[in-house]
């Protein structure tokens, strides 16, 4: 919270709403939030009861949206303004207060498109009487006032705020302004909450970016991309004795999405050094556009091989999961060969805090399942 310099930001001296619009179109009838009294007591317990659904929405850094049938948004109170706490002196200053969050009006486009003003509650103290009147703001370089003049109890860094009845249009209308990844979406029904759309990553935001060939030359950082340097992992391939059996493991048991499958003879598959092969293949989606390729050689048939991890040439695949215990139980129940219980990595390094175990696919390929260490604050 902090105080704004009225000489720089005069929100109390309101212009007509149409004059303040930066976009074409007229305002909707929903220009002020619904009365708080009816929401505080009816919604207060509900916001906290379903296993704190607002916190389930924060994947991975606290940005998210939790909505019930009416549509509710949840975001996190970030911090107090730096330095002097936002206090600046000016002649005859007017005290103003804002609450900065880790959200943005880019995630709630009807703030600007329809001038919607939603009811804003503190999840932890939804029934509390208002103690402050503050503008709830986002974190971008735009105006980013999500709810002006919100009536709130005292809030502290880390508190979660909920916007009620935002509706379903905010998610498809959200943008990546300032290259911000969009939040995840949680479906809340009664006491149940389930993630139905994951939070975007920075890789998602920039996934469509391409560097023209003419701009690659002359930069030491990019010269290798058109030369002899490897620039990344494209795909991993597993040779399978039975494609359908392997799909039952990787797709049905582990949940990888099938991108495509087919059959082929000769042609480009002869680059393997096997003349005139007949194959069945399937591509499974991994993150960041990478692929797990499954290939069954129908002709000529190969010799099964089950190398141990210490045999030269042995390899393994490591797949990330969200719940290592659930995956372990699922594989056990399916009679998959599992080496051990999940183990937490204690040694210092990039994997410290992660939980892992090893299993074998139907052809004996070692598969490591890993649940990354939680981020600070999770």
Name of the CATH superfamily of the largest domain: Lyase, Ornithine Decarboxylase, Chain A, domain 1
Q: What is the ordering of alpha helices and beta strands?
A: HHHEEEHEEEEHEEHHHEHEEEEHEEE
Strand tally: 17
Tell me the structural class.
alpha/beta
Amount of helix: 10-25%
What profile does the largest beta sheet have?
A: 4 strands, mixed
Characterize the structure shown:
- With 378 residues, the protein is an alpha/beta fold.
- The protein folds into three domains: 17-199, Lyase, Ornithine Decarboxylase, Chain A, domain 1 (Beta Barrel), CATH 2.40.37; 231-304, 2,3-Dihydroxybiphenyl 1,2-Dioxygenase, domain 1, CATH 3.10.180.10; 315-378, 2,3-Dihydroxybiphenyl 1,2-Dioxygenase, domain 1, CATH 3.10.180.10.
- It has helices spanning 17-20, 37-48, 53-56, 110-113, 170-173, 202-205, 213-216, 220-223, 243-253, 324-333; strands spanning 64-67, 73-76, 98-100, 120-122, 132-137, 145-152, 160-163, 184-189, 192-197, 235-240, 257-265, 278-285, 291-299, 316-320, 343-344, 355-360, 366-371.
- Strand 8 and strand 9 form a beta hairpin.
- The two termini are 23 Å apart.
- Mean pLDDT is 78; it is low at 1-29, 50-70 and 82-86.
List keywords for this structure.
2,3-Dihydroxybiphenyl 1,2-Dioxygenase, domain 1; Lyase, Ornithine Decarboxylase, Chain A, domain 1; four-stranded mixed sheet; disordered N terminus; 25% strand; 3 domains; alpha/beta; 378 residues
